[in-house]
Amino acid sequence: MVSVAQFFEYNHNIMYGSRILFICVVLTGLSCGSKDAAQGQARLEQQFQDSLTNATLVGKFTSKSNDRLAEDRYDISKVTRMPGGIWLIHTRVRYGSHDVTVPIPVKVVWAGDTPMITLTDLTIPGLGTFTARVLFYRDQYAGTWSSAKGHGGQMFGRVERGKP
Question: How large a percentage of the chain has pLDDT more than 70?
Answer without folding.
Answer: 78
